[in-house]
Write a structure and sequence with these properties.
With 275 residues, this protein is of the alpha/beta class. It has two domains: 2-115 and 216-274, Periplasmic binding protein-like II (D-Maltodextrin-Binding Protein, domain 2, 3-Layer(aba) Sandwich); 123-211, Periplasmic binding protein-like II (D-Maltodextrin-Binding Protein, domain 2). The protein is built from twelve helices and eleven strands. The strands form two sheets. Strands 2-1-3-10-4-11 form a six-stranded mixed beta sheet, sandwiched between helices. The protein starts with a helix and ends with a helix. 46% of the residues are buried.
Length: 275
């Protein structure tokens, strides 16, 4: 479990540094701000922040930035405080957070990053007692994802169910959710793919009784404060970050892919969310 936490935190931190590697033009005009918002991830912001600081500092030195500031957050409220105060140029956001903040902050999709075992690309209903979705409805459902009902109801379930179909047992930690099913305090639980990998280790009797479609990975975005030339250069070169000297680092921390993306790559989930 400790190894999983470290890899998750390191992966997030390297992503944060990646968002600055090729933005020297923006740096010339001042501090390059990078927001990493990973909701429902393993570990805390306090644990991850030193890694973000280290990698953003390295990126600043290597690229001749006038200054750099990166912050890791696990909640939208804290992330928005950073956005208001620091006006970051770039961000790496989990999918639900991106959809929730997209319109308010005029976020521009410029890339995507897939991180090994980061979670959030597929969701599952798990149970020891129920055998299918019908067996979960009307029963106690544990989840640490229930704080975003719009995302769950519209994007994750695509109408197969609503959170209101269950008696919710709110949890605050990924493992806590799984343990509610193990103990029998909840008949089912709504978890993501990273949690599912842990669930089968905790109790072999736990099984997935429903799964969502696979969703797009974490989103690399540009904020309105990012100059057009800087965001264009960054987007064009995203795929090179894990090449050369960066290849070993990406592999070590579990980055699967970092590449350019456009609005078209997220059109399906955006349409479902806005419906």
């Amino acid at each position: 479990m400790r190894t999983t936490v470290i890899r998750s935190l390191l992966a997030t931190s390297v992503i944060a540094s990646a968002s600055g590697f090729l933005c020297a033009d923006a740096a010339a005009e001042g501090t390059v701000g990078v927001l990493v918002l990973r909701e429902h991830g393993v570990g805390s912001a306090a644990q991850a922040q030193p890694y973000v600081d280290k990698f953003v500092s390295v990126a600043a030195k290597q690229n001749g930035w006038g200054g750099a500031k990166g912050e890791y957050h696990t909640s939208r409220g804290n992330a928005e405080a950073f956005i208001s105060a620091q006006k970051p140029q770039f961000g790496i956001l989990s999918l639900g957070a991106f959809l929730g903040l997209k319109a308010k902050h005029n976020l521009d999709i410029i890339g995507q990053v897939a991180v090994n075992r980061a979670g959030g690309q597929q969701y599952h209903l798990i149970s020891k007692a129920a055998s299918d979705l019908a067996g979960c409805k009307g029963k106690a459902l544990a989840s640490d994802h229930a704080d975003d009902p719009k995302f769950i109801d519209k994007v994750v379930s695509k109408g197969a169910f609503k959170l209101g179909d269950f008696t919710l047992v709110a949890t605050t930690r990924p493992i806590q959710t799984i343990k509610k099913v193990v103990s029998g305090d909840a008949t089912c639980a709504l978890i993501d793919d990273a949690q599912l990998a842990e669930a089968t280790k905790i109790d072999a009797g736990i099984k997935s009784v429903w799964s969502s479609d696979k969703l797009p990975p974490m989103v690399v975005v540009a904020f309105p404060s990012a100059p057009a030339d800087a965001r264009k250069a960054f987007q064009a070169n995203l795929g090179k970050i894990c090449e050369g000297e960066g290849k070993a680092t990406c592999g070590e921390v579990g980055i699967l892919a970092l590449k350019s993306a456009t609005t078209a790559d997220y059109a399906g989930v955006v349409a479902a969310y806005d419906k």
